[in-house]
Specification:
Blueprint: H1 2-10, E1 13-16, E2 19-23, H2 24-31, H3 35-43, E3 53-55, H4 56-77, H5 84-110, H6 117-146, H7 152-173
Length: 186
């Protein structure tokens, strides 16, 4: 209780043992971060004087150490900052990784997980050609079915209307080369 009263008397920013002690609000402003970021830093190992107060010097040193570690990691992975032997090792590792991925892809293709593009395009072309032939004949079939109930001109109009709608739908669904309006049926 006495320590809390001393802290209240000292305020948000004070000197203690030759260091500057700042409240969360002032420490966050000093480092240009939010109080939530300071809380995350504490979880990552950042020192603090006590709950809600930070030793500015210790936090600065901790932050510099973390930044140094981050820069060292970047230097380890940045080819421009590597020695020739490190670059050789780095690129050998990248080559082996690419070779592994290529081998895995070949194994997946051989195992049937992937199909060649030409096989897929060929199968879909056949499927859509059959679909086209089936649905284009639908208008004529329906026209013939209703012809006994209406006159022949109306039946032809219905046939034409359904055929036009089917061709519109097919052209909207089509991919270049799969369906061409007006092409002969197979």
């Amino acid at each position: 209780m006495a320590d809390e009263e001393k802290v209240e008397q000292k305020g948000d920013l004070y000197f203690e043992g030759g260091t500057i002690i700042a409240s969360t609000k002032y420490a966050a402003a000093y480092f240009g971060v939010t109080p939530a970021t300071l809380s995350n830093w504490v979880k990552a190992g950042c020192p603090r004087a006590r709950h809600g107060y930070y030793d500015i010097k210790a936090v600065t040193e901790w932050n510099a150490q973390k930044e140094g570690e981050r820069l060292a990691e970047v230097a380890r992975t940045d080819p421009a900052k590597m020695s020739p032997s490190q670059m050789k090792t780095h690129y050998d590792a990248l080559l082996k990784q690419a070779q592994l991925e290529a081998t895995q892809m070949k194994n997946q293709i051989a195992g049937g997980e992937y199909l060649p593009k030409t096989e897929i395009v060929s199968s879909l072309s056949r499927l859509f050609s059959l679909l086209r032939a089936s649905v284009i004949g639908l208008g004529h079939e329906l026209g013939m079915t209703v012809a006994s109930y209406i006159d022949a001109d109306e039946a032809r109009k219905i046939d034409k209307l359904i055929t036009d709608r089917v061709e519109d739908a097919l052209s909207q669904m089509s991919v270049d080369g799969v369906y061409q309006p007006g092409a002969d049926l197979p």
